Amino acid sequence: MDNLIAVVAALLYLVALATIVPGLVHQTGIRVKAVFASAVLALAFHAWLLSDLILGNSGQNLSILNVASLVSFIISVAVSGAMLRTRLWFILPVVYGFSAINLLAAAYLPSTFITHLEQDPKLLVHILFALFAYSTLTIGALYAIQLALLDYKLKAKVALVINPNLPPLMMVERQLFNIILIGNILLTCTLLTGFIFVQDMFAEGKAHKGILSFIAWVVFSILLWGHYQKGWRGRKVTWFTVIGASLLTLAYFGSRFVQEIILR
Q1: Which chain regions cross the lipid bilayer (predicted)?
Q2: pTM for the complete prediction?
Q3: HSE-CB of 130 using CA atoms within 13 angstroms
Q4: Which of 75, 104, 156, 227 is deepest in the core (most CB within 10 A)?
Q5: From the centroid of its chain, how far is CA 130?
Q6: pLDDT at residue 160 greater than cutoff 50
Q7: Which has the closest alpha carbon to 186: 226, 207, 160, 216?
Q8: What values do phi and psi take at 144, rounded to 5?
């Protein structure tokens, strides 16, 4: 049953993606209602799948693929909601494409990492902060890549710049730093709750998570300071954002990949 749900969700994501891409390529109008309807249905099936995969056991199955699918779901919800107010058409195909891949992988390559968060609500708070911080800052990285693309097209005077489906450069930059600010606040809360609630945060095999997360926090903090105090823009912003998001990815998924996939 889970496999069927995953296929339906993936197909709905692909329908949304296929509705967006022609408008970006041919600079034509995008049917917003059709994209939104497909996305909502895809998210509904995605949520159904996640409930089966994560909550279907005695405890919570937070395997690396389930968590990756959960992160994709959170990001997809956020950008789908923002779709109605801002032109995120460059980001959406990437987000929906990864969501489809992640949910199919979680359904067809099942793995197990059972936790019992109901016995430790403080740890649940820490994990929720971590999930939303990572999701928010990943969206920030996608925004930064979009910003770099728009900046390149403007400087190269490429016709794609006038594509009505792409947002103005200054609007993307303003949204980017709002996202990074929110994400860094959530990351701060993640680190604080980790120090307070996770007793073995720096135990052997886990210390790198905290260290890499803290380095990512420093990277994003320097970026925010550089922008608001020194007026940083352009490539420097893109590099800082992508490096920070990459550090967070290594902090969690790097070790879990080794534990669950390589050493299994």
Answers
A1: 34-55, 62-84, 90-111, 123-145, 176-198, 210-227, 239-258
A2: 0.90
A3: 25
A4: 75
A5: 12
A6: no
A7: 216
A8: -65, -40
60-61 and 114-115 strand pairing: antiparallel
**What single string gives the DSSP state of each residue in 68-94?**
HHHHHHHHHHHHHHHTTTS--TTHHHH
Mean pLDDT in the chain?
A: 87
Q: Which residues contact 123 (CB under 8 A, 6 or more apart)?
A: 117, 197, 198
Q: Which residue has the tokens 């339906």?
A: 8
First and final CA of the chain: distance in angstroms? 26
Residue 205, sorted as left (phi over 0), alpha (psi -120 to 50) or beta, turns out to be left
Check residue 165 and give its pLDDT.
67
Which tens digits make up the pLDDT trace of 122-131?
Answer: 889 999 999 9
Q: Residue for token digits 């990943």?
A: 138
Under 8 Å CB-to-CB from 204, ≥6 apart: which residues?
none
Q: Which residue has the tokens 């279907």?
A: 56
Distance separating alpha carbons of residues 262 and 162, to the nearest angstrom: 47
Q: For residue 262, what are the contacts with CB-CB under 8 A and spacing of at least 6?
A: none
Strands (E), the chain: 60-61, 114-115
